[in-house]
Amino acid sequence: MNLSVKDAAALLNVSEKTLYRWIKQGGVPAYRLHETLRFNRVELLEWATSRKIPLDPGILSEPESGGIPLPAVSEALRNGGVLYRIEGRDKSRVLSSVVEHLRLPEEVNLNFLLKVLMAREALGSTGIGDGIAIPHVRNPIVLHVTRPSITLAFLEHPIEFGALDGKPVSTLFIMISPTVRAHLHLLSRLAFVLRDARVRKVLEKRETREEIFSAIERAEAQVIAAGGRAGRAGRAR
Fold this sequence. Notes:
Blueprint: H1 5-12, H2 16-24, E1 31-33, E2 36-38, H3 41-50, H4 73-80, E3 82-86, H5 91-101, H6 110-123, E4 127-129, E5 132-133, E6 149-159, E7 169-176, H7 180-193, H8 197-204, H9 209-236
Parallel strand pairs: 3-6, 5-7
Antiparallel strand pairs: 1-2, 4-5, 6-7
């Protein structure tokens, strides 16, 4: 809970009045500490992403920390790979099938990972609409992985996922991150990449792995360029 009302409003690019209205409606994840409202940055971004609230690309241009560069979505996707024709007719069975195929170190307990993913879904669906969901571990550190991965899984049968738009989900991006910072970065950047028309097209047509990688790399390059421009504009002000 490291954000104030002012910080949260700035992150969401809305007025404090709008933020208070959203809180009153019961949607925004907020906490009251000693009569003061506070927000968790990761939870707030997850909430905004799931509701397709426009965010400033400049939030992705934060400086590197400790000399460790932030991961690229395209790099994480190549680490995780693309899966086709995943079987299952409900959320539990689909996630179980995907977890069995994840490229993870042998020391990662897959049963534990599945339980953690299901626990995250119990808090609220990771379905972001238009048939896409982004299952992920709420606290990435618990898995002790050393590199980020995003596994794209195409489902054989669309399933009910509790998405806000009510549409069944047929495409999953399962995200595994080594740190909270990497998690936040990948989640936000992936949300921007998925707005790209070319990316949407290759996903809908379930193109080859290389065609998907290529489309995402191009879209991500545009996001990085937009973030850089936004960062320079902010400094100019």
